[in-house]
Amino acid sequence: MKLYSAKQIYKADQISIKKEEITSDELMERAALQLFNWIHLRMQGAPVKIHLFCGIGNNGGDGIALARHLLDHGYNISVYVINYSEKRSKDFLINLERLKTRKCWPSFISSDDELPEIGKDDIIVDGIFGIGLNRTPDDWVAKIIQHLNKSEAFILSIDIPSGLFTDQGPENLEAIIKSNFVLSFQTPKLVFFLPQTGSFIEQWEVLDIGLDPEYLMATETDYELIGNNEALSVYKPREKYAHKGTYGHTLIIGGSYGKMGAVCLAANAALHAGSGLVTAYVPKIGYSILQTSLPEVMVLTDSNEDLLENIEFDFEPTVVGIGVGMGTNNKTVTGFTEFLNKNKKPLVLDADALNILSKNKSLLKKLPENTILTPHPKELERLIGTWKDDFEKLDKVKKFTKKFKCIVVIKGAHTIVVQIDKGYVNTTGNPGMATAGSGDVLTGIITGLRAQGYTALDAAIFGVYLHGKAGDIAVESTGYQSLVASSLIESIGSAYLDLFKIPEHPVVEESKGQ
Ligand SMILES: NC(=O)C1=CN([C@@H]2O[C@H](COP(=O)(O)OP(=O)(O)OC[C@H]3O[C@@H](n4cnc5c(N)ncnc54)[C@H](OP(=O)(O)O)[C@@H]3O)[C@@H](O)[C@H]2O)[C@@H](O)CC1
Ligand SMILES: Nc1ncnc2c1ncn2[C@@H]1O[C@H](COP(=O)(O)OP(=O)(O)O)[C@@H](O)[C@H]1O
Ligand SMILES: [K+]
Which domains, ranges and CATH numbers included, belong to the chain? Predict the structure, then answer.
């Protein structure tokens, strides 16, 4: 699913109005009806108090139009206009007049006015700001937002939580609505998935207001949301006459004294992802550990007992995944450097391989094109430096991937795969996966997919999706706390099978939490 920017949504808006020969007011009415139907279906006329807080732009207009429909169906409503500007939009005013003809007069709230009382069992509809927010709200508006956030009432946001910018990082975290549910028009917004702002959204759903499909289809977006459909579209079925050679030979290089488990996890995950053959290259100390715990995996050892020093092997792997549990000892740095000097195979780099690169940036030039790097936030910071907000981080990563012709997998609650100008935002995974070794499993899955002939980009995107889905399936039987990295591996098979399940519900996303 494409994630459109505010500019693109406004453009779609204009094109739809022109093509369909409708007025902007009619489009607002469509949006309001969709909002109303969604609420009415769930509330069935229940007499719960609904407070509608509306701004003076089109987001507020949506709220005022919704208020009319709620009123017409006998709901118990109060309407407030947050009067933060004199520049009321035309469609807001049209809808305000319609509401007044029904003898419903909103309370206009300005800077010094008292804030209305809200019960914790009430419902708040948040229509203060939409995608038109272009500067931080004034302090008195921020105070109203905090008042709503503290009320404990259920907050339903129209289009986007008020106070969140659509395409830039937040400036004042105290001036953003904490939504329980967002009904977002036509497209979810990128900020729903970023670490700094995602926590303002508990659940979201898209309401299709019928913006011009031709424009939407033809428009390229900077970000795409990866769900079941996108994952399924890259999936490669197995062929009847295939043999293990068809599905590639994965080489996992890593491990050091006390950290051999990381290699076991990555190698096992590569097997479960479908790699035909898997070899692990480890310090001597790892030989029996791997042979005992993973009979399917072949093992080669370094000349050094406890760490990697001379990475040498005499076969042709399809792809190499390197770095897990490897450590950053000087001898390993030398061995890794020499390996990069010789290597011609596709690479997946994780953990200490990334840490070594961060300290020896000249090595980045030695990476083959389309190398996949899988940093967690701290490793990413070592690699690209600090960032002011998530948008700066994404810009820096895009530049980095352009410069070094690589792919970066920014790991997190919604992992984002970045290649040059485009980001792919994952939808699977849960906080149970914040556990030792789950990154090693991801490295194994991505390397194992690459071995099977997936392009680097597809392997990264699909691998991240499968990994998160395995986590979502595993957590159903383990619970969040007891999910361990090995249970992710056991669920990779179910994650594949899940690709072919027909979804029971429309797109409803829950933020990842208990
Ligand atoms: N195609 C669609 O998806 C459809 C979208 N629709 C709806 O329209 C919504 C977008 O509406 P919108 O453009 O009128 O802007 P909105 O968010 O209501 O903000 C109001 C105005 O406030 C101003 N302003 C900004 N920041 C400010 C600040 N800090 N403090 C004070 N003022 C500030 C700024 O104007 P400015 O003062 O900068 O000129 C801005 O224009 C969208 O989210 C959806 O709900 C549907 O109706 C139908 C189809
Ligand atoms: N809250 C979360 N929601 C979804 N996925 C998560 C969450 N926390 C961690 N993960 C995933 O778990 C993995 C953790 O990787 P990493 O930090 O490298 O762990 P380790 O080094 O222990 O293997 C990443 O793929 C990340 O996206
Ligand atoms: K809103």
Answer: 2-219 (3.40.50.10260), 229-501 (3.40.1190.20)
